[in-house]
Amino acid sequence: IFRLADDNFCVTNAMSCDLNDSWYIKAYSLHDRPSVLTTMSIRQKHNLFNRLKASYPVFGSNSKVDDDSVTAFTKEEDGKVQQLIGRPALIISSTSWTPDEDFSVLLSALIKYDQECTTDHPDIVCAITGNGPQKSYYQGKIAELKFSHVRIVTCWLEPEDYPKLLAASDLGVSLHFSSSGLDLPMKVVDMFAAGIPVCARNFKCLKELVIHGKNGCVFDDSDHLGRQFLTMFKKFGSKQNKHLSILRSGVEHFRKLPWHYHWRHVALPIFDDEYVFKDYGSEDEGTSQFGQSNLGTPRNMI
After folding, report:
1. Per-residue pLDDT tens for 187-221?
2. Is the sign of the CA dihedral 72, 77, 81, 84 positive or negative?
3. Kind and range of the H or E element at 74?
């Protein structure tokens, strides 16, 4: 069907090259970009955690007192909400719990962090969202783990809460692995849209989205990911922690080039040439010799 089209789009440069090399098909790379950016104020985060704690107590205060003024991450005092001093870091990962995402990699990385973190490191709350066939299997594995500094919660969120929890988090993790090496994980685009950096499992074309050390980090195995956690969260919450702030700056650069920017600069110029003009009659007449409009033939786009 690609050969029947006048022009084609694909989602990565790697796919464009593969189509050209394997099938002699020219395709323009139109990368996924967020159409909506999510930003959360500290009060909005506080309200979100208070709402979620009813179903997932890990978001609530460690105290036994049911008090909406304090969550695991924030506190309200004299009408003002602020970050809780010594709060845990919030990591989020989303999944459909299928075999193409090996969550043992994340669990092993969290075990490494739990064993090797020091007083310079925060505790971690890791929220894993989504549903799928392997969820109960991994919930069993998680229940067997004995952590001192890590808590894991598996969530099923309302659609409107997912981008909010992303924006309330400190770091995203993507375990997506492309067997073809030609596609990119949309979940990383969602995380960038929410303004958080990402640790992403490495594969062939990932560098088209995640730039190591700029807007996130790329890892190859659980040990690598665990070391990244230890580096990123050292002196967490203080001015001495430069790693997360540098990555967040890179994410902000990504957010400045949203979907409509790529549409205007990649797709629109092609659609502007949507009609092939064939002048069978005079320009003054405005119709062809067959009495039809000179708009020509619509182009087929794939």
Report:
1. 999 999 999 999 999 999 999 999 999 999 999 99
2. negative
3. strand 74-77
Give the type of residue at 166. Answer: L
How many degrees, rounded to 5, is the angle at CA 72 between CA 146 and CA 81? 165
Short-list 38, 71, 252, CA closest to 163: 38
Q: pTM for the complete prediction?
A: 0.87
> Which ranges constitute the DSSP H helices of 39-170?
42-52, 104-116, 135-144, 161-168
Separation between Cα atoms, residue 59 and residue 48, nearest integer Å: 9
How many Å apart are CA 236 and CA 123, to the nearest integer?
10
Q: In 10 A of CB 32, how many CB atoms? A: 17
3-state helix, strand, coil in the chain (%, to 5): 35, 20, 45
pLDDT one-digit tens code per residue, 53-106: 999 999 998 876 678 899 999 999 999 999 999 999 999 999 999 888 999 999
